[in-house]
Amino acid sequence: MTKGTAVGEVCLIGRPASPGLALSRLFVLTDSVRSTAARPAGDPAREAERLRGAIIEAIRELEEVSRQAQEDAREMLEFQIAMLGDEALAEAAFATIADGEGADVAWRAALDSQVEDYANAEDEYFRARSADLTDLRDRVLRVLSGEEQQSVPAGTVLVALDLPPSRFLGIEWRAGSAIALAGGSPTSHVALLARARGVPMVVGLGADLMAVKSGQEAMVDGERGILVVAPNETTRAAAQSREAEIEQRSAVARQYQHAPARLPSGEAVTVMINTAGPDELSLLDPAICDGIGLVRSEFLFHGPTLPDEEAQYRAYCRILEWAGSRPVTIRTLDAGGDKPVKGLTIDDEGNPFLGMRGIRLSLLKPDVFRVQLRALCRAATHGNLKVMLPMVATPRDLAEGRAHLDAVVSDLAARKVPHVVPPLGIMVEVPAAAIAIDRFDADFYSIGSNDLIQYVMAAARDIASLSDYADASDPAVLSLIARTVAHGKQTGREVSLCGDAASDPAIVPHLLGTGLRSLSVSASSVGLVKAAIAGALDR
Ligand code: PEP
Ligand code: MG
């Protein structure tokens, strides 16, 4: 978090989690900060009874929230109810109570240890469940302490350390409502819910956030990831005019979101989405897109150990099931550069963007690469899967990648493991590939404009002060895109673009001008991109 001040105001900078703007009063939620130390333990039978009663009451509360929740949140809540109803969850707590400990301390200790186990799990899915357990821990502790849950006034900016999904669902969100969290993450369940409900949200504002007071006026900008406390007149006026502009753009986006994308001439354009994993898909309607143009498989590699074949297979299947018959392009691990993976990437490179990243690293670690390829070929039996190699710079990169795929396929066939051989494409993100695209005999091409721009313009993508150079409409960049598109047309191979440039409605006309007819964009920009394709934003 960074802090800045203008006259009379304090600006806290975090990370954007849900777009939109709110100008309202703060409400500080304190019931998530709880201590269990003070209460002395009573008779073990009595303490066990208290815990049993608190679990039953917490289940009742969750059932009530579930009854009122929309379809997309019910599965999440039913999962929590089932977890809380499972006797195994509280077994350790009851054992500690029998040894003389109080219900509160015993429950917290038992749940803390399980939260830690889940948080360290190899499988991303189980790691994400640690937040559900934390929520259950705190809900039962609150019932045990007899504290009332704070009621959040409608239309306020909710300030908290973090916010569990079940708590979000129990709050009435109205115009002016927003969320500002000291911790949290843009990929959490609660961020997905906030995006789905149109509640602006900023996360990662840091511990200083908790020094603000309920009742102070504040502005939340969910697009820029900032919270301004006590905004001055200039900030307020700017916010009000941006609010009107944002509302107008969202109305246009809603109008176009579900329709097929068409140019004003009627010609169809493919619009797919990018994703960082199955969790963020669960609240999205697949009907808004023509498939998934980029799955960044790095999401599987953030745990303490590398994911095994089964964990990867399960995650890929979940993505394919979400997409149904729509195509899904999963990119093999693109570690390195600005995406280090502990125990895999090289730590002391002088310039990691020009280092051992993407396919180079996979070829250096064939055991890790082949586990991923095996999981992908097996998952390909469940949908329309394509596989794509990142950072390909020479035809040799592609040939060696394909050789590993062939070897994995032969092995699966020999062992009679059900599998399908997916088409193998490349990211066109290194200028060498774009310039000499006819040397690359790939099944399809996907232009990675984020990296292509940084390498063409010699401007690192993670240096904010160089962002003026990161211009996708620069003629040098557009000529490389046009070259790739022309090669695709000549050879009958699909060319798409999956970098951030495709999600920018102002850049879309330039991309279409190169002849490109397939874009893969962030899910939140589908509506506006389709409107830009239709020429509806210039009117
Ligand atoms: C790109 O480089 O444009 C791209 C889509 O990949 P990433 O941003 O993951 O490097
Ligand atoms: Mg890239």
Provide structural commentary.
The structure is a single chain. This protein starts with a strand and ends in a 6-residue tail after the last helix. It has helices spanning 44-68, 71-85, 87-98, 103-119, 124-128, 130-145, 165-169, 189-197, 233-257, 309-323, 359-364, 366-379, 395-414, 431-435, 449-457, 475-491, 508-513, 526-533, and strands at 2-6, 9-13, 15-18, 21-28, 157-160, 178-181, 201-203, 217-221, 226-229, 270-275, 292-296, 327-331, 384-389, 424-428, 445-447, 495-497, 518-522. The longest helix is centred in the first third of the chain and has 25 residues, at 44-68. It is α/β, with parallel strands linked by helices. The chain is globular. It binds phosphoenolpyruvate (PEP) and magnesium ion. The site of phosphoenolpyruvate (PEP) has 10 residues, from strand 11 and helix 15. Phosphoenolpyruvate binds next to strand 11 and helix 15.
Task: Put the structure in a nutshell.
This protein has 539 residues and is α/β, with parallel strands linked by helices.
